[in-house]
Amino acid sequence: MANAPQPARRRRALTLVGAAIAAPLATLAFTGSAQAAELTPVAEYLDAAVADTSAQIGAALDELGLAAAE
What's the CA gap between 48 and 22, in Å, rounded? Predict the structure, then answer.
């Protein structure tokens, strides 16, 4: 990945980010309704996953030499 052209690296990073976000959302979509006690651990996991993904996006942008939008 170190020798890949810049657009390919960006596309690969965005694909990984999309997969990291889509998997938990797909799980929630197909499970149906649930009680708040059942959703709390999922919400906490999703919150952590989004925070990690955000950090990975920032790192990928830094690696590509781009500035993150604020």
Answer: 14
Instruction: Provide Rg for the chain, Cα atoms.
Output: 15
What token pair was written down for 34? 């649930």
Note the pTM of the prediction, 2 decimals: 0.44
Amino acid letter at 21? Answer: I
- Residue 69 DSSP SS3: coil
Quickly state the pLDDT bin for 32 (edges 50, 70, 90). Answer: low
Question: What are residue 2's phi and psi, to 5 degrees?
Answer: -70, -30
For 45, the token pair is 């996991």
